[in-house]
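Saturday, quiet lab. Running sequence design on the structure tokens for the scaffold JK sent over.
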């Protein structure tokens, strides 16, 4: 659980007085928790919500555990993509964090950041690797850095204890972690209670996860399939077991059209922005109580 922040730290971070922060906490302008001793504590996601709905800006981001220069740059998506590719290849994690946080504070949606900056940066990294301009270790370290940044961005999203449950992961033999983590992040921003179960999951075990956890939605991220026929057979088994009771959304480069035509699912989404639209519609149907499995 992300560590909570004191009014003193918030005041320093935003360059305002501690008494102002305490007043905002007590008025509920900043969502606040109180310790057993009555001390005010604030989650980073609450400060992010406060910043996005007021004129206040980060003055000393380091006081909140963020990179010192966060929130200063007015980044455009294209420039951010180039800068992130360079920083990922250089293993410069602090710079990567700053770029991601600046985009978030500039109120780009997380789905757009995933599709147009993060995924595209890895296309550029993949091309650099393919033509010998990047080393394997640089690509792998870049994945580790982005994995941690997706975890950090998840702490900016308010926790949805009330949201409908969604779980997901990648199938057997697929070791791509970023797609399923992005789905977890984007669904969380759409007010789902979303949990990625990880990579290399036998579809039979995913079916058991659905029976045990009873989610409203299951996602499958498929970037690599060892054997398409084995996948289709196992996927049919999964769909027969849980498809009638749970929405299933699939995505990922390995799901080419011919393969998809042999699968049943609620939705196939090319990218995270499509997932956001689908998940928002389904959640509205669920909260309006007229959901049937899509
Ligand atoms: C990083 C990477 C790896 C890493 C991943 C590490 C990690 N922690 O994830 C590892 C080391 C596992 C890897 C391995 C391999 N890789 Co690789 N890899 C890449 C690389 C550089 C980036 C891929 C990536 O993760 N991008 C970030 C994700 C988020 O973007 P994305 O996949 O495009 O996802 C988007 C959509 O598909 C969609 N989406 C994805 N998942 C989901 C899920 C849902 C629910 C929804 C709605 C949408 C959705 O939204 C995303 C965001 O827009 C690509 C280069 C490239 N051009 O992309 C090569 C690349 C994909 N790899 C390639 C290959 C060949 C392999 C190997 C087969 C090599 C080998 N022979 O061993 C192995 C297979 C390993 C395996 N069994 O899984 C080739 C694929 C060629 C092809 N024709 O498809 C590429 C293109 C490299 C190249 N230039 O040739 N790879």
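Result came back. Writing it out in full:
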């Amino acid at each position: 659980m992300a560590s909570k922040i004191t009014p003193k730290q918030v005041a320093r971070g935003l360059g305002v007085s501690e008494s102002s922060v305490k007043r905002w906490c007590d008025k509920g302008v900043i969502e606040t928790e109180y310790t057993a001793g009555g001390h005010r504590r604030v989650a980073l996601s609450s400060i992010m919500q406060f910043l996005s709905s007021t004129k206040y800006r980060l003055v000393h981001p380091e006081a909140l555990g963020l990179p010192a220069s966060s929130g200063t740059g007015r980044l455009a998506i294209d420039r951010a993509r180039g800068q992130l590719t360079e920083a990922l290849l250089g293993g410069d994690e602090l710079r990567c964090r700053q770029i991601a946080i600046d985009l978030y504070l500039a109120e780009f949606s997380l789905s757009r950041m995933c599709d147009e900056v993060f995924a595209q940066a890895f296309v550029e990294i993949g091309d650099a690797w393919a033509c010998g301009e990047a080393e394997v270790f640089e690509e792998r370290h870049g994945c580790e850095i982005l994995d941690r940044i997706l975890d950090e961005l998840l702490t900016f999203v308010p926790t949805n204890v009330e949201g409908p449950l969604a779980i997901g992961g990648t199938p057997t033999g697929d070791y791509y972690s970023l797609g399923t983590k992005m789905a977890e992040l984007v669904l969380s921003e759409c007010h789902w209670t979303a949990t990625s179960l990880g990579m290399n999951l036998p579809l039979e075990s995913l079916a058991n996860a659905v029976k045990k956890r009873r989610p409203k939605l299951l996602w499958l991220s498929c970037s690599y399939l060892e054997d398409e026929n084995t996948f289709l057979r196992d996927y049919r088994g999964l769909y027969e077991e849980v498809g009638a009771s749970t929405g299933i959304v699939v995505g990922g480069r390995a799901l080419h059209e011919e393969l998809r035509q042999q699968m049943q699912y609620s939705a196939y989404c090319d990218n995270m922005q499509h997932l956001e639209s689908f998940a928002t519609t389904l959640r509205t149907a669920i909260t309006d109580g007229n959901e049937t499995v899509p």
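Notes for JK: Residues 159 and 232 are 35 Å apart (CA to CA). The radius of gyration is 21 Å. Ask whether to fix the surface positions before the next round.
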